[in-house]
Amino acid sequence: MPELPPVVDTGWVSDHRDTLVLADVRWFLDGRSGHDAYLTGHLPGAVWVDVDTVLSAPPDETGGRHPLPEPAAFARALGALGIGDGTTVVAYDADGGPYAARLVWLLRRTGRSAALLDGGLTGWPGDTETGAVVLPEARMTPVKWPREALRSADQVASGDAIVLDARAADRYSGANVLPADIRSGHIPGARSAPWSGNLRADGTFRSPAELRVRYRALGVDGDSDVIVYCGSGVTACHDLLALEHAGISGTALYPGSWSAWSADLSRPVATGVEPG
Question: pTM score > 0.85 for this model?
Answer without folding.
Answer: yes
